[in-house]
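Our consortium's second objective concerns turning raw sequence data into structural hypotheses that experimental partners can test. To show how far this objective has progressed, the report includes one record in full. It was chosen at random from the queue rather than selected for favorable results. The single chain below, 316 residues long, was entered without modification.
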Amino acid sequence: MTDRKPPFLSLIVPAYNEQEVLPSTHARLARILAACLLDKSVSGYEIIYVNDGSKDDTRAVLRKIFNTDEHVRIIELRRNFGLQGALSAGLFSAKGDVAITIDADLQDPPEKMPEMIQRYREGYDLVLGVRSDRSTDTPFKRATAQMYYKLLKNLGVNIVEHHGDYRLMARPLIDEYNNLYERNRFMRALILELDDHYAVVTYKREARTLGTTKFSLSKMLSFSIDGVVSFTYSPLRFVSILGLIMCVLSISGVVWIIVCKAMGHAIPGWTSTVLPIFIFSGIQTLILGIVGEYIGRLYTEAKHRPLFSIRREDRH
């Protein structure tokens, strides 16, 4: 692989109600990027903060940062579009040869950015940050994450285990991503649909020092469902097979009842009627729910509403 010239870097930081962490976050990011500029691993840089409809003083904190650092840009979204929408807004506005996306809480250490940039210069258009140690996460989160990644892989989804949203993308890949029409975006898998030739940078996930996580259980569940139904139709195939099995069992039950009656055996009373109703009702509800998830995604895609809407953008 040929060595590429030092790139101009766009660092994208989505922020939703992060007023507590932003001052320390910016100081840490600015220090690392200034060192990259000094050792000429980058030709220049911009830090794009995407305010994702915050309800606290995030906007005011970002304005203070903007007034003290000429490298900072602020994108103000009209409402909360979620992490995928905020990341998409940042990538759409990025001017760099490469873009790195990172969470505002910096649990994914930004000190790994020089290593990511070096892998880009070696020829990779995609560099993924992968968590080698998640000991700072709660046992529940570690266990559910492990099960979720295994589920996705078993369903045929192309995904890198323990990769979040810490990644580097080169300009050609950014342009391809920005041209996608999909509304329901699960970037961890979607980006691998565009490029399966990537480098990996591993790190230990740090503990959050200030503020609280903005991913509630309901948001995590919704995010997880997006990852499944956006990339595989295996659940639909599963319910089709399940329906076939239940049909076979039902026919077998009818044959068994006929044989029992012909042989003069007593047929069970209410249990033989009520229990099958409960079982089949539950299965039908499950099937309708899975099909409904896919129909809901089709409905969202058909409306073709924007991934994000920018209220204003501040730049020097």
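The partners drew two points from this record. The chain has two domains: 8-214+310-314, 234-303. The chain has a mean pLDDT of 81. Both points have been shared with the crystallography group to help prioritize constructs.
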